[in-house]
Write a structure and sequence with these properties.
The complex is a heterodimer of chains A (291) and B (364). Chain A has 13 helices and no strands. Chain A is mainly alpha-helical and 291 residues long. Chain B contains nine helices and 20 strands. In chain B, α2 packs parallel to α4. The longest helix of chain B has 18 residues. Classes of the chains: A mainly alpha (291), B alpha+beta (364).
Chain lengths: 291, 364
Amino acid sequence: MLQNRMWLYGWLLVSPALILLFAFTHYPTIATLWSSFFTTPKGCREASFVGLENYQRLLEDDVFWQVLGNNSIYAIGTIPLSILLALSMALWVNGKIQGRAFLRMAYFTPTVLPLIAVANIWMFFYTPGFGLIDSIQGAFGLPSQNWLGSPDTVLYAVMAVAIWKEAGFFMIFYLAALQALPPSLHEAGRIEGAGRWYMFWKITFPLLMPTTLFVSINAVINSFRLIDHIFVMTNGGPDNASSLLLFYIYETAFRFWDTAYGATLTAVLLVILGAVAIGQFYFMDRKVHYQ
Amino acid sequence: MKNIKFNQVSKRWQESVAVEDISFDIPKGSFTVLLGPSGCGKSTTLRLLAGLESCSGGQILIDDEDVTQRTPSERNLSLVFQSYALFPHLTVAENILFGLKIRKVNKTEQAARLKRVSELLNLHPYLDRKPAQLSGGQQQRVALGRAIISERPICLMDEPLSNLDAKLRHEMRVEIRALQQKLGITMVYVTHDQVEAISMADQIVLLNNGRIEQIGSPSEIYSQPQTTFVARFIGTPPMNIIPLQQKGKSLAIAGSKQQVHELSGSMDIPLFLGIRPEDISIGKFGLKAQVLAFEFLGSDVLVDCQIGTEKITIRTDNQSSFATGETVFLSWKDRACHYFEQNSGRRIDLMPGVASQLLSSAYE
């Protein structure tokens, strides 16, 4: 009797997690894929099955390719830089320096601030004429520049915000990992006469690989996910020059209400993120040493 | 082989004093153990010697050269850590060769030394494994290998055996000692385990509260402890330290009238009698005592007795058992007695003489 009821207890215990997982992760994913094969339902007609027609449209959509290109530049530009910055900041504030607690806090502040608020601060930096950057440039007699208004610079301007925001967050992970390293490993290196550089490349960096893997996967996901500042600063413009994939999905689905095409774009985003994450685990796992 | 000299070395961290004004010599090729309870400053002393900590005062000399300001690698010594400090992402071979690679020793030399060391330590089957795939004893050997492959004249060890089980610890003790003698290294070894110290050392430096209590060979430390601290630290169970009362020229155990020593003149200083549990025998003659407790240990027995107000522990291989409250007679040889000043805890040598009196006192 008891034996028979055990499976029920088991299911009851996992059900809260399962319900949440299905309701908010699995169902939306499948529903998205499903709707990408239909037309957008309108008031007067139901959605009808169109097969791969939405995907056909996607391949011919110039804006999609532009946005994908933007997002690639955005990812390639922000990920390595923010990780590098995070690692150097962590190494620095892990040392015995004056005002260490203050520095750590300062580096972490961007993470705590809401991105919307941050974007407004950066807007001020970039404002042509009296913004911070232009004021400094003006002091040296350089001409005024509209960073957010020019298609040539706007993407790099929003990338700078993302790097600034992300580096502090990743630093915390590196800092935690550095503090978990036994000091005796470095002492053993010192006894053998290893220099700082040798010690970093042969000991510290390899032992931080699990953190680097974790951080880099998060960085990839964030480079497709964090777009709040685009809304505030540029709205994707000018001429889609700062539009990213997720922003384009938002525009298509909730401004133009073309939900079927929005679902198609989402499916592409999911495939990209899934592929990158699997690839990272597959390739990097071999080089990562776990304790 | 090199000798080492500590000259009035101190180490302070703000208010707290870890090591205070210590001076001692370590002869070349010797096995010196820094011994003491935890927090006595023995590991700090070793780290000062290694150069991992800087001295607050004093000098450290290696072969009469002042190395106080030198970096760890300039001191030309190797160190085995308590936690082994093996690099977890490197294989056994890479771990052992770590230092040689830094110093860019040529490849054929590296291979030859690796072969020699791995055969010496029975590590050759494991050279391609990672440290996590080895047992504690094997990891310990890798750490040893990394220390001895450098062929540096001085080797330091910081409680290297404390993470091993009792059987392995005994084996490694023998191995390390044999290795040290074979390679002729000057070894400085930190431990809190008196058995390790006594069985391995040529010289023991016994520390307490950042100061040296006594320096000497294991037998000197055992047979002539200079303070009550040393007396109680070496030997299990620890030496009985019994306060004595002086009545005229005779010394008696506190709370009892039974004389244990007769003085040639009168003394003003209050004394302790120190006597090791294994030096007391239970028999038909001697000081009268009551049995408080009895513990069977296999090869021998521990008997707790009371004389006057004092408790005395006896270790004997006498296989008879004793009941609580039973009256027994205790006796010991004169040369087994140690005397210490009660105030300073320092050893004081009295004229030998009155052990024979113990016998007569039994007839009272």
